[in-house]
Structure formats: structure tokens, C-alpha cells
């Protein structure tokens, strides 16, 4: 198990194509090479509505395998602990800002990753020195800290998952809960309330402050008990919003109607104009957008009544601050069509039901599951452009309810985004805008794949396809390389590595072929403390 990093070294507005194999890309450095020195400047990734959100756990962070897991059905889901991160619950009446300020005033070197209002958690990253003392450093630093929890990640997508004090228990019947009362009392746990699941008997159980077990241990204790169908922590999970539209003109909406511009494959689209000849959608059809909120005053959206904010538990599903992912997704689904205004939604005659489950990227299983069930009772179609973390029996139960019982018993179509990746391919880090202002020397644009000597997960190679240089409009292609030419490396490109071997090469094995090509560039397999570069002629 080794730590792996793929770094994209760029010097102008660039889009890289699909990448594969290995964990999500971490920080993207800008490199200035001079005769004797190099400087690294961190880039700002231009994901407009996501720019203020916390970063994913990066490959640089130490992940510890303590054989931690939870169960979903007959499957055990592994979790890795993030060595330098903890989640804190402050004492009642303490604001997030006051709690964090108290920790910093006490000398703890700490920064915020994110917060989750429903579970009242502040997710923090400590310096290596502070993290060495574990959660004790936080508990002893301030009387405002009530409890500290480890932060885990789900290894397949590095999404953070925090098991707090609450467990969701699904039982066969009410008599089972009565039989469990003694075991729960011995574990210092109490039943808080029955959850509103309509197709299962589920309860929220909470550990007392003096409980010796944590929620993962409580779930394991309940596993196999007579009448217990499943038990899982009410995880505070990091969710990733998987699609952010940014093209304001229909001529640029190639997913709707692809004319083959910018090197795209003509007619590789959903044939939206042909579908609109049949129907543009009906205002009697309601699409639930389950996301970070929707701008209910947007002039290009038809909003259905009954939207709800499950994150803050109120009736205002509007987004907070600069969050705009849900509004954008609503536009993709149903921006009003044929009104001479901005974009055309794929079902532009339908209405939108805003369902808010998050403000940053953290939400709880109960928030998500309850939101899905509510949407099934109030909408015809459920759209979810988010994902992240391991599976959840509670969320799966809500989806089952929607598919089976939604639309008055007819069942709702429930859609989830496949993500900005497919079959292991990562959509090249999106778009990056860089400035060379104030820098001198020789600049290069390269792909640098390296490993350090730390222990973490990752593969020995990585693939790259479709590297693009864009004009200032962020759309028009100035230059592109898809590695489909007669030779490799392409003209002007160079191959360099720390060992002189393990160089990049071109392959059809596991290549990205969605854009019509047959080849992708692949990094040579490397070991600990090694690197291999694919350098462009720019």
C-alpha cells in the first residue's frame, strides 16, 4: 500500500482529459523551472460553485488501516482513519466560530475542513504535532469541546465518514426493540425516537456520554441479535456534487445537440431537439432536485410548492452563500425552454421541487434518507447529482421506498449521477486558470506521476487522455493532444523519470475510448520515492 500522487503542471488555461487508476488527484502545483531552482505555486481550481468547499482527503494525507469496518447487509465496508483529522462536538450554546477560536487561542494548530449542522460536528485538521497527541489535544485544550471523534474515509473514493453517537437500528417488529432494552442499557445507549421510514421499522439509538463502546462497536454488538435486520452508525458523510454546468448558451450544450465542434464526435448527444419534437415536458410532472438547495426565485425555473430544507429542518430550500450546484442541476433538468433566456433544460416544461440535504459537503445518513423518502411522496422523478462514502442501509431503504411506493404506488424513477468519472477514469481535474504574472524563467506544462515513502493506498500507474489548451473564453480549443498520432511520445513531447526507466508509453489496454480514439498515455510502473514525467512542448 503506497501513497500516490498525480500532479498536473500547467501554465495557461488548460483542461486535461480523463485520467485513471489511483486515488483522486490532490493539490495541483504550478512549476517554474530556472537554471538552479524551481518554485511551486498552488493553483486555484475554477469550479465556481465548489470553490469554497473543503477539499477531499488528498493522497498526501496519512491514512491508517486499523481494520475498522461497518456492515451493510452481508457485506463489510472497510474504513481508513485520517491521521490528522478529528470531528468535534462543542458544548451546547457554543458556536462553531467560538469553539474554533478557543482551540486556536489555546495554541492548537488547527484548521477547519467543514461543518455539519444536523449532527453538530466541526471537522478539523490538526498539525502533525497536535495530531500526535490524538483527540486528547482537543479535549484538553478547551472546555468548550464536549466530544471528539475520529475521521474515517471510504477507500474507494476518499470521502470522509464520521461515526458520532447515533446508530440507526432496523428491527423486524416492535417486540424486538423491547427485547433489546437490556442490552442497550448495558451498553449505555438509549432509544431516541422512531424514524419516519415507511417501508421499515427503524429507530435512532444514542450512546450516553459515559459509554465505553463507540457506535461502530454498538453496531457490531447488535449484529446477529434476534430480530435485528441491520444496524449502522448515522454517519456524517462527505458528499461530492458530481456535475456543475457552466455553459450559458444552447450552442455550447453539446450533451443536448453535438455538432462536432472542438473535436467532439458529432451526434454524440441525447438528441434533445428530436425529443422536444415529441414533448418538452409537462408542468404536471415534478422533478425533485436533491442537492444543496435551489434558487426558488430563479426566472428560468418553474418551482413546485413543498420544497424543504432537511439540513436545517425548515421550509426554505434556498442555497446558502455561493452554493449553486443544486440550482445548476435544476437548470440542466428543467430550465424553462423556448423563452429566449439562457439555457434550455432537457425537460424544460416540468417543475422543480427543491430538496436541500447539505450546505457544504457534509450530510448525515438520516438527513439524506428522510429527504429521499419525502421527495418520493411529493415528486414524480428524483434527481441526485451527488455521491460519496460507503453504502448505507438506511439510504438504500429510502431509495427502495421511492422506487416501489413513490408516485402513489407507481414508483418513482430515481437517478444518481455516475460522477465525473467512469470505470476508474477521473475527468482530468476540470479547468484551471493560471497566471505567470511576476514569474520569470522557463515554464513547462507536464504530467508528473510520483510516489513518496508514506503508507497509503494507490496504484502503480496512471492513464491520461485528451489534454486540451483553451482560450480565455474557457471553451474554444487552441491546442489538443489525444495520443492518437503515428508515434509516441508526440512531436515535441519528452519522457523523463527518476530512474531513467519506467517511462510513459502509449497503450490500448484500459484506454479511454469514449471520444472515439483507441490509445491513452500510461505512466510506467513506479515504486516508492520514484517519479516519471510526460512533458509537453509548451
Describe the fold and architecture.
This protein has about 550 residues and is α+β, with helices and mostly antiparallel strands. It folds into four domains: about 5-45 and about 430-535, no CATH class; about 65-160, 2-Layer Sandwich (Alpha-Beta Plaits); about 165-235, Alpha-Beta Plaits; about 240-420, 3-Layer(aba) Sandwich (Rossmann fold). The protein is about 15% helix and about 30% strand. The chain has nine helices and 36 strands. Strands 6, 7, 8, 9, 10, 11, 16 and 21 form an eight-stranded antiparallel sheet that branches. The chain has a six-stranded antiparallel sheet with strand order 25-26-3-30-35-34, with no helix packed on it. Helix 8 (about 365-380) packs parallel to helix 9. The chain is globular, with a radius of gyration of 25 Å.
Summarize it.
The protein has 538 residues and is of the alpha+beta class. 16% of the residues lie in helices and 32% in strands.
What are the low-pLDDT stretches, counting only 5+ consecutive residues below 50?
1-54, 243-248, 421-430
Please identify the top-level CATH class of the largest domain: Alpha Beta
Structural class: alpha+beta
Number of helical runs? 9
Q: Total strand count, please?
A: 36
Oligomer: single chain
Spatial shape:
globular
| Average pLDDT number | 80
End-to-end separation: 35 Å
* Rg over CA atoms: 25 Å
What percentage of amino acids are in beta strands? 25-35%
Proportion of residues in helical segments: 10-25%
Number of domains: 4
